[in-house]
Structure prediction request, 346 residues.
Amino acid sequence: MLDDANVIKQRDPEGALAVAGAEYSQEEFDAMVWNGDNDGREIKNVVVGGMGGSALAALLLKAWLKSDINVPIEVLRSYDLPGYVNESTLFIASSYSGNTEETVSALEQAEVKGAQLGIIAASGKLIDEAGSDRIAHVQLPEKLQPRMAVIDNLRALVSLFINFGIIGKDKFNEIADAESWVKSESMKWISTVPTDQNYAKQLAHIAVGKTAVFYGGTLTAPIAYKWKISWNENAKNVAFWNEYSEFNHNEFIGWSSHPVEKPFAIFDLISNLEHPQILKRFEISDRLLSGLRPKATVINLAGETAIKQLLWGSILADFVSIYVAILNGVDPTPVNLIEKLKKELV
Prediction:
């Protein structure tokens, strides 16, 4: 089915696969406008407010640059700010639509508390609030579903971190430097590459008809979360995620009892850059759970650097989940229930 162009055209009418195939080009950043404003205050902590894919970009940045950032960073996925936010806090409001109510609420509170401010959005209330230069902001291009704009969002976040002196300018170029390699990897997963040569299609066949569970390590936890998001919104399936070594302190035991036949597809997202003990935990856990849960399918993230691995894993998540949607007979693009919920919340 996944090698039938007519089926793909029928079940992916809005071209989600084409969008996934062009995600690497977000690294070019051509459509973005960056207005910087930094009054020189010392920043002692950072809070990034965002939901879904907007929060994901902040989690990716934390995993990628954990050794380069010397201030604590909190990713806020709620309406209300933590009590410690003050004039020494950098608060970044991130929402692709610019209208996410949790993020707008948090920004209003950050203004009252006198925090340094940054905004990432394509349009909406947040861009109106930023004005032409009142608040440092990056305006994203209005062309994508938020979940498919993670690379745009990540680089926007890096821009603001540079503007406020939290990281060096060299980090801005690391994403762009990976573009040609990420492009060549992405082309291996497009619809015209047959299943026997297409890793994304092969993974979709493993997972279809089952509930997917994704596990990451210290570096790959946000990628496991990305796979869960893509599975929910593209494949229109429930999925779950967790991270090592937290998994071994609770969920590990949850797999050990009834029923023995469990309708799950387990995926371990592995990076060779992980702490050696994390890698041992993946291996030993799967062995000890043999016969108690389905054997994990190991996805070894490609790339010699952390940023390459994170980009590779993020884009692969979209390809695989879109192929699962096609196998499920659903259009991967619309998220109608989310839009309906937003309207009823007003």
